[in-house]
Amino acid sequence: MTCDEAEVMLHALIDDELDAGHAREVETHAAGCARCAAQLASYRDLRQALRGGNLRHMAPASLRRSIDRAVPSTAATDRRTLLKGFALGGLLSAAAAASVMLVVVREDRDQRILSEAISAHLRSLQADHLTDVLSTDQHTVKPWFNGRIDLAPPVIDLAGQGFTLIGGRLDFIDGKSVAVIVYRRRVHVINLFVTQGVGMSLPGPKMETVQGFNIRRWTDQGLNMLAVSDINREELDEFGNKFEEAARAARAS
């Protein structure tokens, strides 16, 4: 395990989101790597501080007195109404701010996931990193994932449509294990990441270009599908359409 791979999973480790095997791999790596060990200790210290610290801030009594002085004393009822209005306005403002923050956090996480998928795609192009199971037979690749990951990725033979199945492997995105089905289009590799609980569900397919790579994302039967390649957008979109059509036909048969 490299430092880059371990760093992706450190947060998942302290949050108890890794299975026993991957947790042991990360801990073993950290035990022999001063950099990752220090990062892990820093994360744990921060988590402990957030749990134990008093993060609530009480408004000072002087704020109430300032409000009382600003409102005429003969309008006690109106003051109460005004204070309730302040409170309601504060709640609405907080809710609006929280909504904006949630969107920003989701978009930031979404972009991070795309960057991690591209990094995984690039790693796979190195020698002996492309597949864990090398086969053009979907009936060999699909059962290989059994017991290795908590989902059943659809493995489709698209050789007749010009996309040759190469095999499959396990990879990591957002600190979680994901299934990867590998295809080839001429000299171009297509990595199809199949995840559950990683990334945002989409109402329909979405094409993007990130760091010079084309990405097609869609959701199918509760699974998030993310195809990464350096082929042109039209061909990658064609791959996604052919895959979706074949997957629907396989379920109907």
Provide an overview of this structure:
- The protein is of the alpha+beta class and 253 residues long.
- It folds into 2 domains: 3-52, no CATH class; 112-252, 2-Layer Sandwich (Phosphorylase Kinase, domain 1), CATH 3.30.200.
- It is built from 7 helices and 7 strands; from the N terminus they run H-H-H-H-H-E-H-E-E-E-E-E-E-H.
- The protein has helices spanning 3-14, 20-31, 34-52, 61-70, 76-124, 138-144, 233-252, and strands at 133-134, 164-173, 176-185, 188-195, 206-210, 213-220, 223-229.
- The chain has a 7-stranded antiparallel beta sheet with strand order 1-2-3-4-7-6-5, with helices on both faces.
- Helix 1 crosses helix 2 (20-31) and helix 1 runs parallel beside helix 3.
- The longest helix has 49 residues, at 76-124.
- It is extended.
- Mean pLDDT is 82; it is low at 98-106.
In brief, what are we looking at here?
The protein is of the alpha+beta class.
The chain-level structural class is alpha+beta
Count the DSSP helices.
Answer: 7
CATH class of the largest domain: Alpha Beta
Spatial extent as radius of gyration: 25 Å
Number of domains: 2
Strand order of the largest sheet: 1-2-3-4-7-6-5
CATH fold node name of the largest domain? Phosphorylase Kinase, domain 1
Order of helices and strands: HHHHHEHEEEEEEH
Largest β sheet strand count, sense and barrel closure: 7 strands, antiparallel
Q: Report low-confidence residues grouped into runs of 5 or more.
A: 98-106
Termini separation comes to 41 Å
Strand content: 15-25%
Shape type = extended
What's the architecture of the largest domain, going by CATH?
Answer: 2-Layer Sandwich
